[in-house]
Design a protein that fits this description.
The chain has 12 helices and 9 strands. It is of the alpha+beta class. The structure holds 2-acetamido-2-deoxy-1-O-phosphono-alpha-D-glucopyranose and magnesium ion.
């Protein structure tokens, strides 16, 4: 049996009539749509090279589902379906961990942000997720990816790649390497945050790209999905990745960097949407670093892509020679444009 079929057979479904189609999204996990005559599901394979402890994911999702059903029963939450033997995931030897979720009826996802309203809705939903869980003891969540957004460690890994990595690639990346080193103050601010008691650890999604929000027919946000990286974190991770992925009309794969820009009205929408749910939770010290969030996440992504390029693409893989070099250059171009507009963006949210 093929691994996918074997995984589906673990569930209480008539597998004969299932139509399984791949849904292309992330770089890390694989996702399929699974349908029969009456029902639709989402099947996902968790990349266990990256997530070494998939049981921690299942555990976290269950804790959150239980909390929300008790305290926020109206919140729509797509919990994974249990297998016939009551497991949250099915392990297929030689392949990995699979899980099945119900497809939320009348929902759709989008892959690019083309209207400020979409940025607003997504930011509102990610803010709501954290805010609804503000009474949940965040320490109960297990860390599904240790040091995922630990910028200090990411910087060290980048320095290691400079020592041990592909020498030719290191020589060719001189300018990008210099930019990363010249902007190390972004790492230093992160380290100040770690030592600042006003920065709170909250339930944080850590992957706030637009395709992780379900929208309804009227393009209102329904709920957030893909909860693998939900763990204790700082708000800068969620707001920062929204800035990284919603502000520019061109995404991280774009080779023509002249298409990368910062759209101010989208920035304002992220602020308004997020604050509509989080204004009572973020304190002034945190708010002061709202724009820093974007710099933090873009810089970290640039660094990760570049380090991976220098390490011969062992983490992200590459569909063409130099893909991670292009991605790193793209993120650096985005960061430069954000820095150019920083004062203007500050003025947009100053009165709020
Ligand atoms: C990965 O899984 P996916 O593709 O949404 C990565 C993120 C990066 C992103 C860049 C577990 O996310 O941190 O921001 O690629 N996730 C992991 O596209 O490494
Ligand atoms: Mg993800």
């Amino acid at each position: 049996m093929k691994p996918k079929v074997e995984a589906l057979a673990a569930y209480d479904l008539p597998i004969e009539n299932l139509v399984v189609e791949p849904i292309s999204t992330g770089l890390i996990n694989s996702t399929w749509s699974v349908k029969n005559y009456h029902q639709s599901f989402i099947l996902q394979k968790v990349n266990d090279n990256v997530f070494k402890n998939p049981a921690a994911i299942a555990n976290n999702i269950k804790l959150i589902a239980d909390y929300l059903s008790k305290h926020q029963s109206r919140y729509l939450f797509a919990s994974p379906i249990q297998t016939k033997s009551g497991e949250e995931m099915k392990y297929i030897k030689g392949s990995g961990y699979y899980r099945l979720m119900p497809f939320v009826e009348n929902s759709h996802t989008i892959t690019t942000v083309e209207k400020p309203q979409q940025a607003y809705e997504a930011a509102r939903k990610f803010g709501e997720f954290t805010s609804l869980l503000s009474g949940f003891a965040v320490g109960k969540l297990q860390t599904t990816l240790p040091d995922f957004h630990n910028l200090t460690l990411r910087y060290q890994q980048f320095l290691e790649a400079l020592e041990k990595g592909n020498q030719t690639r290191i020589r060719e990346s001189k300018e990008l390497i210099k930019f990363i080193k010249d902007n190390k103050d972004i790492v230093e601010i992160y380290e100040e945050i770690l030592n600042d008691p006003s920065f709170k650890l909250r339930v944080t999604h850590h992957d706030t790209k637009i395709s992780n929000v379900l929208f309804d027919e009227n393009n209102k946000g329904l709920c957030v999905i893909d909860l693998d990286t939900v763990m204790p974190g700082y708000f800068i991770s969620d707001v920062g990745d929204m800035m990284r992925t919603y502000l520019s009309p061109a995404n991280e794969e774009e080779k023509d960097f002249s298409k990368i820009e910062i759209r101010e009205e989208y920035f304002k929408s992220i602020w308004e949407g997020y604050m509509s749910e989080m204004k009572d939770q973020l304190n002034p010290e945190e708010r002061r670093l709202f724009i820093y969030s974007g710099k933090f996440m873009i810089y970290m992504q640039a660094l990760r892509f570049l380090a991976d390029h220098l390490n011969n693409d062992t983490y992200y893989g590459a569909r063409y020679e130099g893909q991670n070099f292009v991605r790193a250059g793209n993120q650096i171009a985005l960061l430069k444009r954000l820095i150019e507009k920083e004062e203007l963006l500050k003025s947009l949210i100053k009165r709020n």
